[in-house]
């Protein structure tokens, strides 16, 4: 191999999911250990890997996506190495190890198909955001890959009384056991975040983490209505 290119070759497999650089996910595929991934995220694969868009397991939950929360998913199965990416976004790999995580669906890249998952309404936010916020909750023993528009910060809420405030348009994921509430504020374009008018932040407290990206989601998910 040409020496300058040799540094970009994949490293030996050491886990089910690994980063290849900052912007690509490498998944070690095995028969019987299927993967659910964002449709269109496959950039390369080695071996024998098959794809099934909108499989039955996804269709059963699709009714919850009428709210707009959720990402089109495909089932990946087979043996080999699978490489996934999402328009050059940073990739964050998490081994849940029996825990759970609540994810903004636009930041969900892939997860083990045997994990327990579903779309849930975030409690305590309806009065701030009309119909409220819906997120994808994933839990169990297995792997999850998220994307972030830029290198994210992972904030440890610490379990104390102090609250961590996040612009919802920059929110990627959080521990589902955290307490969540909304906080109204008037934000002018030059003061807090982007846009203008009345908006709010999400306040987190308890034991857990919050993942925040350095770019606000253009879908403007949590603007106050009414």
Automatic annotation (TrEMBL):
Pfam families: AIM24 (PF01987)
Annotated transmembrane regions: none
Record InterPro entries: AIM24, AIM24_sf, Trp_RNA-bd_attenuator-like_dom
Protein name: AIM24 family protein
